[in-house]
Design goal:
The complex is a heterodimer. Chain A contains 8 helices and 43 strands. Chain A is α+β, with helices and mostly antiparallel strands. Chain B has one domain (3-318): 7 Propeller (Methylamine Dehydrogenase, Chain H). In chain B, a hairpin with a 5-residue loop joins β2 and β3. Classes of the chains: A alpha+beta, B mainly beta. Chain A: Keywords: Cytoplasm, Initiation factor, Protein biosynthesis, Repeat, RNA-binding, WD repeat. Chain A: Its main location: cytoplasm.
Chain lengths: 682, 325
């Protein structure tokens, strides 16, 4: 118990009046300027330079005579008063003509900054593009040294072979596993027998990890920023300091990484989103961002040349490596709802909902030319979703509509065939609500889950060259809410994740057969390996607190391993870079597959017999050890026999019936009734 | 393998014991009655009435004369096995958690809970001196203040008691001096149950840390570990095969929110030498609180949080089954 003293009744306490004056030798640690105490107020204290800071210089203004000066002033005013109140304006003249540049003074330096940021590069007409600078920048530009200083050469850091894992003799793929509630992270090499640990570290990341798109880097998350690891021993390759970083996105070319942090965004210095150069580690550009609800905010084109972001009514496309707006101008698209890059070409698809009499439309735009290659008008649209096939051969727009005269929502799939002239569009009408849609990654098939639980159907469609879209097969009454195609196509897993208890159906879509039906109870994730040979189902601790494990299956649905890991969180396969082999080479390998498969089969048999031999050896050793122990224990037991007999009054009780002479015979007759007890779903 | 269902308790089963010959099973539960059954057909032979709280533990001496029970009504009682008459009553300050007869049947031990301001004690009475019970004066009492005893059994020849504690520690307490002879900490969570092999040379511990472990009784050397993914409430060693059976499951307090499927309320059979699971028996619809092999190894029984005791006679295949070596 803690002792409490009642202060008021304590006489000593009453006498001593607390003193608030500083002791004599006290030194105030607040500096004289008082910045620490009044920082926010002092910021607004007028300064000598005031006024100059608020002045901007606008170049490339049309040169006009007095008769048109009034008109020019009106135009200028209209453009520049958006950023704040213009207190003075000055149009220098010679011979009655303006000189082509003007000075504008704003009420505050902030407004001048806004003007520079937004009006610089403003296109007044074809001949006149404004260049806007702060007046104070003149000093800055004047003081630039005319002599070129060669930047110091940075020493080259050798991180070894960044693609070491691909050289694995058995072509094993790697995957990362986070477990113990995030405490430990390990990289395993996948093996049909048992996973082989490549690297394991405690507290490697604070939240989760991400692989870069070609598998070169592993990104770990820390309060202070992002670290990239790679090479044979997973050495640290690069660090990006971004306080509170929570989301990242790699460019497909692995050259850039985009990081997002909800902390520390200031008006002057945008840093909610930062784009970094992975090779140099330099910050390329910062952006403001209010909410990252629809991450990634910036979507990359397939080659990493462009990246785009949507804000209400605009689509801003930036180009690398300058990180500037493409053609210095955003696209004005009022009402734009969503956009998506083709994964195969520099084509962007976006859609705009209905606006009064103007129908909703889906537009495909070529970049950087900004040429609209296809526009599709749609009516009574509620919502659209854009689904690209992985090669960019097809685009499916899932359109939810409420046609006049009907009740409820109807869904259509508008299939754009990108590889054909004029991009023909075909429509598949769906009568039921759609649960999931997925393209075959490298083919022309797609799978759809539709219906209402528990009557969920899985349908498979094929888009033919002539544009005919045939349904190949429908499975009814499926326990599924997600579709996972093998990255190589043809095979897929229909999974009923989470609330559907982890039902799994392995389908071969070449002839639409169900290869296997299985279950990983309460599974929350399904992950195909990059080769499409294996698939992992897992129960993540993030979504479910017991039985956290990941199971490895073949693509046919044969269970190979159950890996229980304490508080397992996440498994991610390490992506592979695209094959260096040409289409012909791949074809010839496929042709000669029989020749190769023999070698592999032999290898598999060898390793299998080795495995069973290892298991048998292990068991034999364990048994020998156990027998050895038991023999010793039993020997001791025999030696104690007399002591035991003594304790039990001379009766030998070592065997259940060793004192059978003392037993009393008892005859019992019983009627054993039989009853059936239902014990529920066991 | 069709089980015999014993429906004699209204609350969850807390402990099961066979007598030495195995013709009788004693069962105690969180209701106040101790039951005794014929193991051959599951008929109830009788009850031991008197406790007024949950009964935590039961034991029977080697010649099936006396029965000992310990209860949350703060008493440990000695009964005449045949007549059900209460022979002695020892009042305690807190609940009696574990109890047992030594090899000779002359000395009893029981441990009390750390509860209501009272400490955990391990008490020893010699029944040959009736005065000890009459005066409630054990000849030896050992305080265990740090971590209370959650399960205990007698070692061979009555020399010491092997006790498991709530922090996973296992101690050997001398029955003569009360000294700790040996101490180990192989488990990192509470020991729920300790049982000896029929010859008392080995003990198996069941722990909340999802494992059961086999130890040598005398040296407390660790021999084997059996892993599951649920807390283990009880484990038993087969007297004739190199097998152990384990029972457990999701903890009772979490069970209302989970289906029987996720709870994994199955009895699980492991090979004692290979530490590999080779079989499961379903049936209980709550966690299994206790399992016990029949002394002849031809059947086993389990008692669950669901209040049922199930006696299972093994099919012939069980005895032929071998793991590939």
């Amino acid at each position: 118990m803690q002792e409490t003293v009642d202060m008021a009744d304590d006489p000593e306490y009453e006498e001593e009046e607390p003193s608030f004056s500083d002791p004599e030798d006290f030194e105030d640690d607040v500096d004289d300027e008082g910045e620490q105490l009044l920082g926010d107020i002092l910021k607004e204290k007028p300064q000598e330079a005031d006024g100059i800071d608020s002045v901007v210089v606008v170049d490339n203004v049309p040169q006009v005579g007095p008769e048109r000066l009034e008109k020019l002033k009106n135009v200028i005013h209209k453009i520049f008063s958006k950023f704040g109140k213009i207190t003075t304006e000055f149009y220098p003249e010679t011979d009655g003509m303006t000189k082509g540049y003007i000075f504008l003074e704003y009420a505050s330096p902030n407004q001048a900054l806004e003007a520079v940021k937004n009006a610089d590069g403003y296109k007044l007409d074809k001949q006149h593009t404004f260049r806007v600078n702060l007046f104070t920048d003149f000093d800055k530009y004047m003081s630039i040294n005319d002599e070129w200083e060669t930047p110091e050469k940075q020493p080259f850091k050798d991180f070894g072979n960044m693609r070491h894992w691909i050289e694995d003799a058995d072509c094993r793929d790697q995957y990362s596993v986070i477990y113990e509630a995030g405490e430990r992270t390990a990289i395993f090499a996948n093996d049909a027998k048992d996973p082989v640990v490549s690297e394991e570290r405690a507290r490697w990341t604070e939240t989760y990890v991400r692989w870069s798109p070609k598998g070169t880097y592993l990104a770990t998350f820390h309060q202070r920023g992002i670290a990239l690891w790679g090479g044979e021993k997973f050495k640290q390759i690069q660090r990006f300091s971004h306080q509170g970083v929570s989301l990242i996105d790699f460019s497909p070319c692995e050259r850039y990484v985009v990081t997002f942090s909800p902390l520390m965004d200031t008006k002057e210095d945008p840093q909610a989103i930062i784009i970094w150069d992975i090779l140099t580690g330099q910050k390329k550009r910062g952006f403001h961002c209010e909410s990252a609800a629809h991450w990634p905010i910036f979507k990359w084109s397939h080659d990493g040349k462009f990246f785009a972001r949507m804000t209400p009514d605009t689509l801003s496309i930036y180009e690398t490596p300058s990180m500037g707006l493409l053609d210095k101008k955003s696209l004005k698209i009022s009402g734009i709802k969503d956009f998506s890059w083709s994964p195969g070409d520099n084509i962007i698809a976006f859609w705009v909902p209905e606006d009064k009499d103007i129908p909703a439309r889906v537009t495909l735009m070529q970049l950087p030319s900004r040429q609209e290659i296809r526009v599709r008008n749609l009516f009574n649209v509620v919502d659209c979703k854009l689904h690209w096939q992985r090669n960019g051969d097809y685009l499916c727009v899932k359109v939810d509509r409420t046609p006049k005269g009907t009740q409820g929502v109807v869904t259509n799939f508008e299939i754009f065939r990108m590889r054909e002239k004029q991009v023909p569009v075909d429509v598949v009408e769906m009568k039921e609500s759609i649960i999931a849609f997925a393209w075959e990654p490298n083919g022309s098939k797609f799978a759809v889950l539709h219906g209402e639980s528990p009557r969920i159907n899985a349908s498979f469609y094929h888009v033919k060259n002539n544009g005919k879209i045939d349904i190949i097969k429908m499975f009814d009454k499926q326990q599924a809410n997600s579709i996972f195609w093998s990255p190589q196509g043809q095979f897929l897993v229909l999974a009923g994740l989470r609330s559907m208890n982890g039902a799994l159906a392995f389908v071969d879509t070449s002839d639409c057969t169900l290869m296997n039906i299985a279950e990983h109870y309460m599974a929350s994730d399904v992950e195909w390996d990059p080769t499409g040979r294996y698939v992992v189902t897992s129960v993540s601790w993030w979504s479910h607190k017991v039985d956290n494990a990941y199971w490895l299956w073949t693509f046919q649905g044969r269970l190979l391993q159950k890996n229980n890991k304490d508080r397992f969180c996440q498994l991610l396969w390490r992506p592979r870079p695209p094959s260096l082999l040409g289409a012909d080479q791949i074809k010839s390998i496929k042709k000669d597959l029989k020749k190769y498969s023999k070698i592999f089969e032999q290898k598999d048999r060898l390793s299998q017999s080795k495995a069973s031999k290892e298991l048998v050896d292990k068991r034999r050793a364990m048994m020998d050890e156990y027998r050895h122990y038991r023999d010793q224990a039993l020997q001791l037991y025999q030696e104690q026999k007399e002591a035991r007999m003594e304790l039990r009054g001379g009766v030998d009780t070592d065997e259940p019936d060793s004192n059978v002479d003392d037993w009393e015979e008892e005859t019992i007759e019983f009627f054993i009734n039989e009853e059936i007890i239902p014990i529920g779903d066991l | 393998m069709k089980p015999i269902l014993l429906q004699g308790h209204e609350r969850s089963i807390t402990q099961l014991k066979y007598n030495r010959e195995g013709d009788l099973i004693f069962s105690v539960a969180k209701d106040t009655v101790a039951n005794v059954w014929y193991s051959v057909n599951g008929e109830r032979l009788g009850t031991y009435n008197g406790h007024t709280g949950a009964v935590w533990c039961v034991d029977c001496d080697w010649d099936t004369k006396n029965v000992l029970t310990g209860s949350a009504d703060n008493s440990c009682r000695l009964w005449d096995c045949e007549t059900g008459k209460q022979l002695a009553l020892v009042n305690t300050n807190s609940a009696v958690r574990t109890c047992g007869f030594d090899f000779s049947g002359n000395i009893i031990m029981f441990s009390t809970d750390k509860q209501m301001g009272y400490q955990c004690f391990l008490n020893f009475f010699d029944l040959r001196d009736p005065q000890q019970i009459a005066d409630n004066q054990p000849y030896l009492t050992v305080p265990c203040n740090d971590h209370k005893i959650t399960s205990a059994v007698w070692g061979p020849l009555g020399e010491f008691v092997i006790a498991g504690h709530e922090n996973g520690e296992i101690n050997q307490f001398s029955a003569k001096s009360g000294d700790i002879l040996k101490t180990i900490k192989e488990h990192n969570k509470q020991i729920n149950d300790i049982q000896t092999s029929v010859d008392l040379t080995m003990v198996i511990t069941a722990s909340k840390d999802n494992t059961a472990k086999l130890f040598d009784s005398a040296s407390l050397d660790h021999i084997k570990t059996f892993r599951t993914e649920r807390p283990v409430n009880s484990a038993s060693i087969s007297p004739i095969m190199d097998h152990v059976v384990m029972g457990g499951g999701q903890e009772a307090m979490e069970v209302t929110t989970t289906s029987t499927r996720i709870g994994k309320f199955e009895a699980r059979f492991f090979h004692a030498a290979y530490e590999e699971e080779f079989g499961r028996v379903k049936g209980h619809f709550g966690p299994i609180n206790c399992v016990s092999f029949h002394p002849d190894g031809k059947s086993y029984s389990s008692g669950g949080e669901d209040g049922y005791v199930r006696i299972h006679y093994f099919d012939p295949q069980y005895f032929d089954f071998e793991l590939e070596v």
